[in-house]
Amino acid sequence: MSDPSQLESSGAPQLTVPQAISNLKQTEDTGDRYYAAWWLGRFRVEQPEAVDALLVALSDQSDRDTDGGFPLRRNAARALGKVGGGNKQVIPALIACLDSTDYYVREAAAQSLEALRAKVAIPHLRSLLDGGLEAAVPVPGKPHLVQPYNAILEALGSLGDDSSEAVSVAVIEPFLQHEMPQVKNGAARAMYQLTGKGKYAQILIDTLSCDDLQLRRSALLDLGEVGYFPAADAIAQTLAENSIKIISLKGLLERQIQAANALVSDKTCKVMSLMDSLL
Amino acid sequence: MADTLLQTKLQAVESADSAQSMLDAVEALAELKDEGAIDMLIRVLGYNNPGAAVAAVDGLVQIGTPAASALLSQIDGYNYGARAWALRVLSGIGDPRGLDLILETAAEDFSLSVRRAAARGLGSIQWEKLEKADRREGQIKARNTLLQVAIDDPEWVVRYAATVGLQGVATAAAAEDQPDLLPPIADCLRQIASVDETVAVRARAEWAIAQLQLSV
């Protein structure tokens, strides 16, 4: 874990924890507040005073951008996903953020709720998918869709458990037909996590050989996250940086070790052998 | 005839006008495994086209010793970026003339991907190129650097690569009939298998122990 005192980038303010908290609480300088919120998350400052200050920042009214967005709230929501585990108010506050008028606040909230393993958020996340495929369209003049579908799908897939699976599956499945590959793949990943059916992971494997490097990278990371062992050879052969392929294979390795409760087995050795070849 | 083929492939790299066509041309050139391609492949390393640079690295590694000679004679003049690529090639070839450079890289380079290549490379040095009398000393140096990297490096993938490297050095030392080099390696691997914070590294150490048939 990084030591805040080693932050070396030129021009970036050197902060201590008390300074960061104090910068976050003051209201004169919005830049300092914004940076402090990011900083507290980056260096995982879990002190109650920091988390309290971030919670307050989550409903800040003063920092607005030209589109009506809430930049400070975005950073606060992101940081709370990293440091908010110990405070009972955080999850409800982030759930409330799912209704924000600011797309990026909603996105950050979904990602942070996933990081905090907030299963209680599942119905709220699902409701953001209302309207299904037909409603999942771009916002005119903006670089995003009406909802942060990737973040929502990923969170639902990652958080889902037996009690909510059937409902989530029904809501997510239509998104397998979405015209944007990123959304389609996000749905495939979630469907695999919820159902365990290989055919959904196969969609991600197929993406490993598509023309778009960014999509290949995402599919590599998705397959690593879900730990889909049959993808091993395809991962190793994907046209992408070895570093990402290694990370992906590491996910497969970890899943196999967990499943077999053994470090060394035929399957783990196969994955390690592939990792060795990419070093 | 072979010369004309080489010229054609060299020309294709010279005249490549897009990142993709550069990559394709470099891959085609590398496939020839022709020493005549060395200078061009080395130039490609500096072209700011990572896909092509990877293909060039692979090509130079395949060519082997003459490529190592060329890089060793030029490397002092390189900027950091070119040096990083050159060290990946030297690590991949394992020419012992590059041993000191590779040792230093494994222990100190800023880039985790270069450190990882160097750590792995220390396990596949072409010891047979050294006089028998010098091999032991070289293996001890490689071993000692790897023992430190395998424990101290902050990046899991570099420790993983060092574990692979240690397995390679142990295998080489056993083949050279230098069994006294092994106990520190065995101890280190056992320690890693037991306490490394990253399960992937523990697993690789465990596998190394099994493959070396060390009694646990």
Write up what this structure looks like.
The complex is a heterodimer of chains A (279) and B (216). Chain A has helices at residues 17-25, 30-42, 48-57, 71-83, 90-97, 103-115, 122-127, 132-135, 149-159, 162-172, 181-195, 198-207, 213-226, 232-237, 242-260, 266-278. With 279 residues, chain A is mainly α. The relative contact order of chain A is 0.06. The model of chain A has no long low-confidence stretch (mean pLDDT 93). Chain A has 16 helices and no strands. In chain A, helix 3 runs antiparallel to helix 4, helix 5 runs antiparallel to helix 6 and helix 11 runs parallel beside helix 13. By secondary structure, chain B is an all-alpha fold. Chain B folds into 2 domains: 1-93, Leucine-rich Repeat Variant; 94-216, Serine Threonine Protein Phosphatase 5, Tetratricopeptide repeat (Alpha Horseshoe). Chain B has helices spanning 2-14, 19-31, 38-44, 50-63, 65-74, 80-93, 99-108, 112-121, 132-152, 156-175, 182-195, 199-211. Classes of the chains: A mainly alpha (279), B mainly alpha (216). The A-B interface holds A 239, 241-243, 246, 250, 253-254, 257, 263-264, 268-269, 272, 275-276, 279 and B 50-51, 54, 113, 116-117, 119-120, 157, 160-161, 164, 193, 199-200, 202-204, 206-207, 210.
Q: Are there runs of chain A of 5+ residues with pLDDT below 50, and where?
A: none
CATH topology of the largest domain in chain B: Serine Threonine Protein Phosphatase 5, Tetratricopeptide repeat
What is the CATH class designation of the largest domain in chain B? Answer: Mainly Alpha
Topology of chain B as a string of helices (H) and strands (E): HHHHHHHHHHHH
Overall pLDDT level of chain B: 93
Q: Unreliable segments of chain B (pLDDT under 50, ≥5 consecutive)?
A: none
DSSP summary: helix tally of chain A: 16
Instruction: Kindly give the count of domains of chain B.
Output: 2
Question: What is the percentage of strand-forming residues of chain A?
Answer: under 5%
Rg of chain A computed from alpha carbons, rounded to a whole number of angstroms:
20 Å
Q: Please count the helical segments of chain B.
A: 12
Percent of residues in β-strands of chain B: under 5%
CATH-assigned homologous superfamily of the domain at 1-89 in chain A = Leucine-rich Repeat Variant
- The CATH topology of the domain at 1-89 in chain A is given as Leucine-rich Repeat Variant
Going by CATH, the architecture of the largest domain in chain B would be Alpha Horseshoe
The residue fraction in helices of chain B comes out at: over 70%
Radius of gyration of chain B: 19 Å
Q: Pairing-aware structural class of the strands and helices of chain B?
A: mainly alpha
